[in-house]
């Protein structure tokens, strides 16, 4: 069935280091891959997205890469800051199936 | 238009009661989605509409759950005979086809 797998479930990095979160999806027809950041008690906020016609997209310290052949995509955060600490979700498919989430902790 | 609005923000109800939530999407968005999120989990897809047509329902959506979008604008999600396991955050999102997915702030349901 339709499925999105996200790894790791928790990630702890030192301030200034990079963080990478990976997702795989099952439906090869998926053409839209967003990443959301969710802080405690708040709604998911879109931070970056990519469509299937490109392999990489970057926005300042955040980048997303997509490998359609392997059906996986990744979120890269460089020069992490304490305010990056949150839960991050990937999603795929037309109606948006979400991954299980990654809790990122950036230690000062 | 300030985004997706959900009402109420919080709802406490006794087990066995019915509850109804409302979602007002971004006005030009034709698609509307309902999700349920429990602590520590990602949003779980429940159902979605394209205009007024309900195109898909998750297996998670039992017979006690029903959603409507009668005029293709706002939507309601009703839960009948609530159970404690229904306690969760209910999120609504809208999009224009596959663009501009935006979430509302959610309705937090507590069944006591």
Would you write up a description of this structure?
Chain A is an all-beta fold. Chain A contains no helices and 11 strands. Chain B has strands spanning 5-7, 10-13, 19-24, 31-37, 44-50, 53-57, 65-68, 75-79, 88-96, 99-103, 107-111. Chain B is built from no helices and 11 strands. Classes of the chains: A mainly beta (108), B mainly beta (112). The A-B interface holds A 6, 31-32, 34, 36, 42-46, 89, 94-101 and B 33, 35, 40-45, 48, 56, 91, 93, 98, 101-106.
Number of distinct helices of chain B? 0
Per DSSP E runs of 2 or more residues, the count of β-strands of chain B stands at 11
- Spans where pLDDT lies below 50 across 5 or more residues of chain B: none
What's the SSE pattern of chain B? EEEEEEEEEEE
Structural class of chain B: mainly beta
Main beta sheet of chain A:
6 strands, mixed
Q: Over all CA atoms, what is the radius of gyration of chain B?
A: 13 Å
- From the N-terminal CA to the C-terminal CA of chain B, the straight-line distance is 35 Å
Global geometry of chain A? globular
Q: Count of helices of chain A?
A: 0
Overall pLDDT metric of chain A? 92
Q: Secondary-structure element order of chain A, as H and E?
A: EEEEEEEEEEE
Total number of strands of chain A: 11
Largest interface: chains, residues each: A-B, 19 and 19 residues
How far apart the termini of chain A lie comes to 41 Å
Which helices and strands occur, and which strands form pairs?
The complex is a heterodimer of chains A (108) and B (112).
Chain A: E1 4-7, E2 10-14, E3 19-25, E4 32-38, E5 45-51, E6 56-59, E7 62-67, E8 72-77, E9 86-92, E10 97-98, E11 102-107
Parallel strand pairs in A: 2-11
Antiparallel strand pairs in A: 1-3, 3-8, 4-5, 4-9, 6-7, 7-8, 9-10, 9-11
Chain B: E1 5-7, E2 10-13, E3 19-24, E4 31-37, E5 44-50, E6 53-57, E7 65-68, E8 75-79, E9 88-96, E10 99-103, E11 107-111
Parallel strand pairs in B: 2-11
Antiparallel strand pairs in B: 1-3, 3-8, 4-5, 4-9, 5-6, 7-8, 9-10, 9-11
């Amino acid at each position: 069935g339709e499925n999105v797998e996200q790894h790791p479930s928790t990630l702890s990095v030192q301030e200034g280091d990079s963080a990478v979160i990976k997702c795989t999806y099952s439906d090869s027809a998926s053409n839209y891959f967003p990443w959301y950041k969710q802080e405690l008690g708040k709604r998911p906020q879109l931070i970056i997205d990519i469509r299937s016609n490109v392999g990489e997209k970057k926005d300042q310290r955040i980048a997303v890469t997509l490998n359609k052949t392997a059906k996986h995509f990744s979120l890269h955060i460089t020069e992490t800051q304490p305010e990056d600490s949150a839960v991050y979700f990937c999603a795929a498919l037309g109606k948006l199936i979400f991954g299980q989430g990654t809790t990122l902790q950036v230690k000062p | 238009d300030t985004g997706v609005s959900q009402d109420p923000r919080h709802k406490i109800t006794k087990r066995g009661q019915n509850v109804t939530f409302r979602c007002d999407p971004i006005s030009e968005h034709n698609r509307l989605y309902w999700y349920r999120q429990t602590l520590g989990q990602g949003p779980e897809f429940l159902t979605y509409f394209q205009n007024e047509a309900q195109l898909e329902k998750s297996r998670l959506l039992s017979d006690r759950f029903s959603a409507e979008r009668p005029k293709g604008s706002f939507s309601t999600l009703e839960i009948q005979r609530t159970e404690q396991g229904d306690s969760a955050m209910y999120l609504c999102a809208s999009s224009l086809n596959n663009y501009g997915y935006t979430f509302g702030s959610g309705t937090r349901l507590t069944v006591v």
